Amino acid sequence: MLTATSAQAQTIAPIDRGWYDSVGSHTTTNENVIVGITDAGTVHRNWFVFAIPSGTYTSATIAFQLKPFAPSGFGLAGQYQSTDPTETYEMFDVNTSTASLIGGTGGVAAYNDFGTGTSYGSRVFSAADNNTTVIFTLNASALADINSAAGGNFAIGGVLQTATANGQTLFSFSATTGELSSSSLVLSAASVVPEPGTLALLGLGMLPMVGILVRRRHS
């Protein structure tokens, strides 16, 4: 009999990430993942694309890590910046093609896609999360889709659901260099090993073969 043991984690950096605004604009060289409403009133939603290793993650724990920091000279770059005490960030499945997302041609359709469809979970953020590593745990729907995407690419979108006014954002100025906000997907899958009893039975099963080999050597 086989049994599951402690989980083994894989940490995967995105192959690309960014934002689309409400008019469908995206700059392909900009990996900022700002989400919410800027001081100027522009609404952003963000997205991430990961290459999922081949395998089955049925018993896996999926976590999405967002690491906000505030480097000198950037104020609250990559962090929670809102006039509200808290904001709710929700993640969704993405049906827009990966090529369109990365190529900057997703447009308004991609922007809409990031905030609709199957929810992958939500989390309430506040200023207390600044300068910490925040773990965003994805739900069973996300896990099922990650399994379906194993061996290929998996895209996920995000929206700041409670942002209603200018100056309510999360992950502002979050780039991938230096101390700015980084992101990673952590996949945990349980290892499967034979139980001790199974190993013992296998050993007993090999004894007749050992006897045959011994007799052949003495004949």
Automatic annotation (TrEMBL):
Which residue numbers delimit the Ice-binding protein C-terminal domain?
193-217
Task: Indicate what this protein is called per its UniProt record.
Answer: Ice-binding protein C-terminal domain-containing protein
Q: Which organism is it from?
A: Glutinoglossum americanum
* InterPro entries linked to this entry: Ice-binding_C
Q: Which residues cross the membrane?
A: 197-214
Alphabetic keyword roster? Membrane, Transmembrane, Transmembrane helix
